[in-house]
TrEMBL record:
It is found in: Mitochondrion inner membrane. Keywords: Membrane, Mitochondrion, Mitochondrion inner membrane, Transmembrane, Transmembrane helix, Transport. InterPro entries: MPC. This is Mitochondrial pyruvate carrier. GO terms for cellular component: mitochondrial inner membrane.
Length: 109
């Protein structure tokens, strides 16, 4: 049973998408975008850049397609960009709500 586990690990290490390739380390590095997007969810909305949020959303959308089409298919990269799209979509939703509600807040007396 242990030999099977070791063979599986060695197969992964030497595979076309294993840790010896950019198919592995590229997505690992890109998870930083997702982490930053999640951490930005706690920032005051005034400190969030609408331009950067839109750029990151478009970037991740394009690279989701790339990750799906490239051979061998890179599901780690796809999941990273899919997660980043959700994080950036949430930020765009926050920005839009803030813009729509600007000036509607009750004024202090």
């Amino acid at each position: 049973f242990e030999l099977n586990k070791m063979n599986y690990v060695l197969q992964f290490i030497n595979s076309p998408v294993g840790p010896k390739t950019t198919h592995f380390w590229g997505p690992v590095a890109n998870w930083g975008f997702v982490g930053a997007g999640i951490l930005d969810a706690n920032k005051p909305i005034e400190k969030v850049s609408p331009n950067m949020t839109c750029v990151l959303f478009v970037y991740s959308t394009m690279f989701m397609r790339f990750a799906w089409r490239v051979q061998p298919r890179n599901l780690l990269l796809f999941s990273c960009h899919f997660s980043n799209c959700w994080a950036q979509a949430y930020m765009m939703q926050r920005l839009l709500r803030h813009r729509l509600n600007e000036g509607k807040a009750p004024k202090a007396v």
